[in-house]
Design brief:
This protein is mainly β and 188 residues long. The protein has 3 helices and 12 strands. The protein is globular, with a radius of gyration of 18 Å.
Amino acid sequence: MTAETPLSTEPVDVAPPTPLELRRAMGAFASGVTVVTGIDDGEPVGFACQSFASVSLEPPLVLFCADRGGRAWPRIRKAGRFCVNVLSEEQVDVCRRFGSSKGAKFDGLEWDRTRWGAPALRDVLLRVHAEVADVHVAGDHDVVIGRVLEVETVAEQRPMIFFKGRFGLDEDEPQIGPNLWGWGDHWG
């Protein structure tokens, strides 16, 4: 069989993965961690997001995925502009704050308002300032395409990495509980 040879039948004995199986499998893909922020009705909003990528250099585009049932994403979408704050490995507390569905994310947190109107978190590695260009529904998430307005390198530090349910690659780091972190299931 070659790549050009079509399958004669669909496999009948293979079921798609359950959400838990997919979560465990995708945990083998290390990713960076960001916090997507915006301002809605004068109030800062944001959520932790590990589904973030560059899409195009010309025109400059990025994407992130957001839970359509989340509280922050609909408000950021309404605002139209956002800031993707790329976290350093030292910002686990910031990640947990924005990755939780509980609590006021910005209470007691120092941040600045960007020239584009979104909250900029302090001590991050990079800020990508963008506006919503397009949104595609994908299951229970939206795939958001953002037109980049400005990039801002803030610090030269090691990035936060999420891998196999843990921050970083060190096996000694405790695994994060399944309901606190995981592929945007309660974020956005």
